[in-house]
Amino acid sequence: MTKMNRATVVTEALDLLDEVGLENVSTRRLAQRLGVEQPSLYYHFRTKKDLLAAMAQAAMAPHADAPLPAPEDDWREWFLENTRSFRRTLLLRRDGARLHAGSTPTGDLDRIRRKMAFLITSGVPERDAQMAMLAASRYTVGSVLEEQADAGPGDAAEPATDVPEIDDESAFEAGLALILSGLVQRTEAG
Q1: What's the confidence (pLDDT) of residue 146?
Q2: CATH numbers and ranges of domains, the chain
Q3: How many other CB atoms are found less than 10 A from the CB of residue 81?
């Protein structure tokens, strides 16, 4: 039996996620994996929703630990790299985008505020900075959702021969460039 604490439960839950996918993660399976009775999980997490929120937060650790922007950074390059870091982090876990979608950023509000302050100090109008960060985040989650759905086991249908194959990273970069281009235009016009 694994010594159980909150961190162990989350780690094991994330490993279970990678093995079986989000739709098959259950407290019953997790309890079996930990060698405990299912009700003992509720000591650490009152509901499955609480467990999923903790999993989402832990899964985002690589992005949450990325360096914050420095005053001398070029805001455009930082914006691109911040969004790429978010994408890379979502891709680290099976169903990472599905796990993250709809989660509320609780532990990283100060980091978000510092990122916003950096953009504003760099000359990006506040409302545009907010909307660009939101658009980049939602665009990234949507892109990764599609990418991870394409990678699922048992994809039965072959694409039609007249449909071009999409390189996920290139498509992501093209869309990200469009978001940044719009933000640059608005910032320069403002």
Answers
A1: 95
A2: 59-189 (1.10.357.10)
A3: 15
